[in-house]
Amino acid sequence: MFGKFNFLCNFVIVKLKSEKMRNLLFTILVVLFAAPLCQAETTITKKDVLGEWKFESTYAPYGYDKGTILFQEKEKDITGHIKFADGTKVDIKSAKIEEGALKFSITVEYYDVPIKATVEKGILKGAASTPEGNINFEAKKVVPEKKN
Known about the structure:
Layout lengths: L1 H14 L3 H20 L7 H4 L1 E6 L9 E9 L2 E8 L4 E3 L1 E6 L2 E8 L2 E10 L2 E8 L2 E9 L7
């Protein structure tokens, strides 16, 4: 198959007299074959998110800028809570994995705050949609210490 494709490309390129036309054809071919590779969607599973995560957010208000997120599985659903650095603890609601992302919400100061996150190279990256705008965060999974 590739032999026929290679022959076709060589034939077309030889027939094209202009250097600009050859470059244009080459660019189009590269884009056509590279585009599907760039569209690979990162899939996320329950196994990827379950456990404890330590998060930080540069743009969150003081007290809400650091803490831990605990994701647990309860009756095949994802549950858990977020504990902020100031000691406030809020439950995670409506957690689900859809469209390649983890989506859940929390209630902070009487506001429902939807959160969407993905796991990229072992780091949970996401954004909380607050009344003041989106607040990005990153979290690293807490590795439990081994007991001797």
